[in-house]
Amino acid sequence: MLTGKWTPMNAAVLKFNQLVQETAVHSGENDDDHMSRVYMLYDATVGGEFKHRSAWLFLKGKHKWTNPDSTLQRRSRLMGTDEEPEHFGDDELPRPPGLQRLAKSQRSGSNSTASSGSNPAAYQEFMAEQYELDRKAKMTVLERESEDRRRLIQSQRIAEDMRVLQIDTRGMDPVDAAIINAQKAKIRAAYPPPPN
Question: Where does this protein have compositionally biased stretches of type Low complexity (predicted)?
């Protein structure tokens, strides 16, 4: 499932990155103008807008994208073999000393107890637990946000009430003064003075 999503995204990101590297920055042009030009060039070249900006921002500094030769060498190596290319493989950086590359059977997770193929019941139980944890976390966030909103509304109402209490009704039209004084009486009743 991931391969089906990654393959078109990878092609789009590679094409966009190639356009970024090949498009020269004009004199007096800032980064935003340059990127706008690259987006328009991508749209004209590919025939659709570039939708993977966040993926490109993440990948643009990675070794594979800054050194296209490593990717081309890997592809040419795989062309003559039956080996399947790894879509999420290494960036061809040297491995730190002491760390060995896992065999393909170990990387596939064939001995994992939570994989859907080896133990469907354990996988379903794991997913149910994960769903419940996610639901509880979301409920906690919603409750916290609701409480924060309630406090904000209450503090705004108190601030508005205090503003009304500060209105001077002397010299005001008697009808308006009566309305404001009635409002002040309601506010004072809502905030009884503390007992002595």
Answer: 105-119
User: For the segment 59-108, what is each residue's pLDDT rounded down to a tens digit?
Assistant: 877 776 666 555 554 554 455 444 555 555 545 555 566 556 666 555 55
Q: What is the largest CA-CA distance in the chain?
A: 96
pTM: 0.35
> CA torsion, points 126, 131, 133, 134, in degrees to nearest 10?
140
